[in-house]
TrEMBL record:
Catalyzes the NADPH-dependent formation of L-aspartate-semialdehyde (L-ASA) by the reductive dephosphorylation of L-aspartyl-4-phosphate. One of its GO terms (molecular function) is aspartate-semialdehyde dehydrogenase activity. This is Aspartate-semialdehyde dehydrogenase. It comes from the Bacteria. NADP(+) binds at residues 9-12, 37-38, 155-156, 311. Gene3D superfamilies: Dihydrodipicolinate Reductase, domain 2 (3.30.360.10), NAD(P)-binding Rossmann-like Domain (3.40.50.720). Phosphate binds at residue 96. It comes from Deinococcus arboris. Belongs to the aspartate-semialdehyde dehydrogenase family. Pathway: Amino-acid biosynthesis; L-methionine biosynthesis via de novo pathway; L-homoserine from L-aspartate: step 2/3; Amino-acid biosynthesis; L-threonine biosynthesis; L-threonine from L-aspartate: step 2/5; Amino-acid biosynthesis; L-lysine biosynthesis via DAP pathway; (S)-tetrahydrodipicolinate from L-aspartate: step 2/4. NCBIfam families: asd_B (TIGR01296), PRK14874.1 (NF011456). InterPro entries: Asp_semialdehyde_DH, Asp_semialdehyde_DH_beta, NAD(P)-bd_dom_sf, Semialdehyde_DH_NAD-bd, Semialdhyde_DH_dimer_dom.
Length: 339
């Protein structure tokens, strides 16, 4: 099977390489593409140095294209990749809200991927992490209302965001004033309740992505969701405090047991032993950590919980590869015959 990564030199592109190293996909050849600025550089995959090529304007001769070069690139070029016979799994927001494009988290709605017409969208990182924990509860108890507060790492803004945190923190620690280029304000020792553009309703687009995408993934347009998204000065892993109003009352013990048996979840919930989800422990993990599971003091029979998931993995690269692996396991993704 021939796999291509578009945007191979970015933060998500590097994680895609790492995830593919251990993937169950039968990869015979890996093609790497990026902007002209990065072309000619080399990246290592399974002990082999691969040269990064300029992303072509036309088709890519691959069975799967994992795209992570931004929405404008995907919007312009993905149709040509599909026309050339490739399945496109796109990490940008370009196609997430198209009715004919599945928005997929394999543990939650993997079957939706089977209905693709050439393109499958990867959710926003915050949404992907949340629904891994919320979907099992929704299936068992029915979620009516969902309130989310996020604590999002600088990795959500890519490699430039991560670099800005390190560089500007270094300035502050050496008595200099921090600046801001990637973020709206200096990020060291600060939290910024502003991710993406503000919308007419007072919410940011990042916050509305959680609303729109959670409803689409769970297949429930009646679900009421409110989100406040905040950037925090950590390198990677997004954390979220989630409050759920349920149709059928649940107990913390029952939810804990339910999540312990759910794919993609690691329950870390022993506060008496100081065991709970944190970026420090969730970074680099495939599973989403879930803990602080407790009875809601606002909604009768509702549940509060806290989650932490690696934004670059389950929130991006890992989920994309898992979509391809799901299709391959179902016999719905096969290598083209080449002569």
């Amino acid at each position: 099977m021939r796999v291509a990564i578009v945007g191979a030199t970015g933060a998500v592109g590097h994680e895609l390489l790492k995830v593919l190293e251990h993937s169950s996909l039968p990869i015979d050849e890996l093609l790497l593409f990026a902007s002209p600025r990065s072309a000619g550089s080399t990246l290592t995959f399974r002990d082999q140095a691969l040269t990064v090529q300029v992303t072509p304007e036309g088709p890519i001769d691959a069975d799967v294209v994992l795209a992570s070069a931004g929405g404008s690139v995907s919007k312009a070029l993905a149709p040509a990749w599909v026309a050339g016979g490739a399945l496109v799994i796109d990490n940008s927001s370009a196609f997430r809200y198209d009715a004919g494009v599945p928005l997929v988290v394999p543990e939650v709605n993997g079957d939706a991927a089977l209905a693709h017409q050439g393109i499958i969208a990867n959710p926003n990182c915050t949404t992907a992490i949340a629904v891994v924990a919320v979907a099992p509860i929704h299936r068992a108890y029915g979620v009516r209302r969902m309130i989310v507060s996020t604590y999002q790492a600088t990795s959500g803004a890519g490699a430039k965001g991560m670099d800005e945190l390190l560089n500007e923190t270094h300035k502050v620690l050496h008595g200099k004033e921090a600046g801001a280029e990637v973020f709206a304000h200096p990020i060291p020792f600060n939290v910024i309740p502003h991710i993406d553009a503000f919308q007419d309703n007072g919410y940011t687009k990042e916050e509305m992505k959680v609303v729109w995408e959670t409803r689409k993934i769970l297949g429930d347009d009646t679900l009421q969701i409110s989100c406040t998204a905040v950037r925090i000065p950590t390198q990677r892993t997004h954390s979220e405090a989630i409050t759920l109003d349920l149709e059928r009352p649940a107990t913390p013990a029952a939810v804990r047991e339910l999540l312990a048996g759910s794919a993609g979840v690691e329950v870390r919930d022993a506060p008496e032993d100081k065991l709970y989800p944190m970026p420090l422990t969730a970074s680099g993990k495939y599973d989403v950590e879930v803990g602080r599971i407790r009875e809601s003091l606002v909604f009768d029979g509702g549940i509060d919980l806290f989650v932490a998931g690696d934004q670059l993995l389950k929130g991006a690269a890992l989920n994309a590869v898992q979509i391809a692996e799901y299709l391959h396991a179902k016999g719905a993704l096969k290598a083209k015959v080449r002569v």
